Amino acid sequence: MASEPDYTISIEPIENRTWKEKIPEKRIAITAPVKQKLSEIREKNKVRWSYVGWPHPEIAEDLGITHEKFKKVLKETLEESFKPKMKKITQKWCEKLQGKKKINIKSEEGTDLTIGIEGRNILKDDGILTQEDIDKGDIGMNFPCGEVFIAPKENKADGKIFIPKTAVSSYGTVEDLWLEFKKGTVTDYTAEKNQEYLDRFFKENTGNIKTVAELGIGCNEKAEYTEGYILIDEKIKGTIHIAVGWNIGFGGENKASSHHDFIKPMKKGKLYADGELLMENGEPTFTTKD
């Protein structure tokens, strides 16, 4: 069944963000090999996909924001996804990153992480899945849109990065998190609050779940932080995100049963590509206009 469709469209389900908290890890872990196998079948058959956000009132309540605010932010972020301005911003970032070998992320609190991207395609999430995107290995799209993203070399991430908050799927929010990478893998991590959520996430998944999977740059000017709705949060202009786990769906080689994004605001940070400063305090150092 997984290999039959040409295209799948999924709408965000109503799901309590903490439903896994009281279920034994072993029971959750049973599903991981199946999830990984399904992903491998879909990727082998190049089944294209879309995952669409939806403003369920139950999700807003779970996030701790009003339903009206949730609807407004999602609507505006979606509308921005299809504007010509979005295509220009993502295209400019692609041009700046094309051919680069190394990305370095620094910020005042001590983040210093270097990621290798040599030979990997620079992909843009601009509301259209073109044949060029598919040829580069990108076969899916989230809605809302608005990011530039790369599958880094799986053994080329070294250093540490601070993440103020990260919503771990079906558990809750981890706060004040430090991640340490060596040769592409998370070798150590500590959090001031709810570290056990991340502990469980790593234990319940299969494959190379701690391997670097993605570097993303948020480009959507209407996206606002929602306290954990990843479809919006990862698109926020002035943020970057680092992911671990699965990435074979967009040009990577890492197999895992899940994919987790860690979002970092860059208001006090810098992003360099082969030594060239491309982002400072959340803003690109180059013009994104014609």
Can you give a write-up of this model?
The structure is a single chain. By secondary structure, the chain is of the alpha+beta class. It has one domain. It is built from eight helices and 16 strands. It has helices at 25-29, 32-44, 57-63, 67-81, 84-97, 131-135, 195-204, 230-233, and strands at 7-11, 48-52, 102-107, 112-116, 123-125, 140-143, 147-150, 157-168, 172-182, 185-193, 212-218, 239-245, 259-265, 269-273, 276-280, 283-284. The strands form three sheets. The chain has an eight-stranded antiparallel beta sheet. The chain is globular, with a radius of gyration of 18 Å.
Could you provide a short overview of the structure?
25% of the residues lie in helices and 33% in strands.
